[in-house]
């Protein structure tokens, strides 16, 4: 995920987040493949078949895809602020303090 302060990129879809600081933020859901980030390799515009992994056996590929789908289902059940926190801390390597500043709240409220 990339947190942007500004208009969404072509890969962002329905991920506008308005935080208590009054700043609109946009979240990308990147998948890194051959040096590029993609919004979704298993949804609109991109299919998993478009990105073959020649070293992947079928069972491993199916299990990996199922795990990714399960993770996306759970993340999609979170509210936008919770998703923003998860992506910022785990995918952007931001600290809790940095995320609190981005969201316009105290670090204690973030927990």
Automatic annotation (TrEMBL):
Name the InterPro entries for this protein.
RNA_pol_sigma70_r4 (IPR007630), RNA_pol_sigma_r3/r4-like (IPR013324)
The organism's superkingdom is given as Bacteria
Source lineage = Bacteria, Bacillati, Bacillota, Clostridia, Lachnospirales
Annotated RNA polymerase sigma-70 region domain residues = 75-108
Q: Where is the composition biased (Polar residues)?
A: 11-21
Its protein name is RNA polymerase sigma-70 region 4 domain-containing protein
The membrane-spanning stretches of this chain are none
Region annotated Disordered sits at 1-21
């Amino acid at each position: 995920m990339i947190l942007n302060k500004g208009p969404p990129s072509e890969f962002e879809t329905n991920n506008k987040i308005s935080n208590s600081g009054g700043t609109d933020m946009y979240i990308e859901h990147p998948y890194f493949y051959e040096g590029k980030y993609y919004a979704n390799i298993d949804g609109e515009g991109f299919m998993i078949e478009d990105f073959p992994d020649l070293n992947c056996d079928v069972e491993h590929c199916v299990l990996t895809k199922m795990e990714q789908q399960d993770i996306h289902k759970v993340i999609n059940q979170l509210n936008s602020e919770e998703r923003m926190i998860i992506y910022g801390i785990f995918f952007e390597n931001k600290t809790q303090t940095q995320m609190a500043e981005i969201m316009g709240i105290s670090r204690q409220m973030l927990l």
